[in-house]
Amino acid sequence: MKLVFNNIKGDRLIWAIAALLAIFSFLPVYSAASNLAYVRGDGDTFNYFVKHFLHLFLGFSIIYVVHKTPYRYFRGLSMIMIPVVLVLLAATMFQTDNSESLTNARRWIRVPFVGFTFQPSTLASIVLMVYVARYLSKIKDKQITFKETILPLWMPVFLVLVLILPANFSTTAIIFTMVMTLAFLGGYPIRYLVLILLSGIVAFVMFIMAAKAFPEAMPNRVDTWMSRIDSFTNGEDTEADYQIEKAKIAIASGGIQGVGPGKSIQKNFLPQSSSDFIFAIIVEEYGLIGGLTLMLLYLLLLFRIVIASHKADTIFGKLLVIGVGLPIVFQALINMAVAVELFPVTGQTLPLISSGGTSIWITCLAIGIILSVSAKRQEIKEKEEREDNPLEILSETI
Hints:
mainly alpha, globular
């Protein structure tokens, strides 16, 4: 155990929070998986437990490898990966839809020879945030014009969002919001950000009009978005409304202390009980205490992300930590808000808690990048302490 702790670097509290979330996730995922097991006919919940364990094991392996990588390498990698994710998004968008559910249409791509599916939009989101952080750090404290930033900064953002939007509006909206937030924190002129925001609204309205004019191009997607918004605002009886009602019943049943681990009733009626609505199952089984504790862990993670950004030794490091870390907490809060009907149904998972390989792996990739920046700061601090200690210098020379 001592050897393990000696080989991990960076913010130890971020390591601890990630580990606590991952360890806790086994209980609700295993409980909620019972519904999936019997719906699909095999009745074996242990397979889902093993699958979740393998996803987390690979995820923490990603954290370990990435946090050992000097974060300066991510500058160049982001430029290489932007064309790659654009190709993956295009291939996903234009593939033949053989999915069983229209909800998953054009979101997933099957990896050849391996047999598992992958969601390119999640990878695209983190690559784009690293790319934007790189560019903002490059132009920091320089006199810039809007025209000269259109191609190098906003064109990749526009292409990624355009390729994700037809299949996943919520992910598109989150990425756009996070990019705008990062640009604001990076010192990009506010008047240009307002122009980008207005351009985004106009582009989205034009997309809706095109989708309405040619519905065969994007079957049911715009209608799905509109029905979810109508259900949220008007309380209409839709599938999204059914999920919200079951989630609220689960939360109300939990009370203060919850009904106990594995004793959830609503997991048998909630379609996405192990992924999108797992927070409702957590509150039902562990009560308000469990739900608030989980929320506090994410807020503590946000606090440590801000600390890690503040302590970073370069502008790129500061923006990188915020760019990849803020979406984790933002996504978690959105997931919780959906469960308590403070937000329309989005399909966003709860980071490190919900089942699903792609979400876990990309979250772990983001955490690994944050820890890489934090580890560099720790390395500099240790070097400064050695230089200030003449006995330490003497011991190294002998």
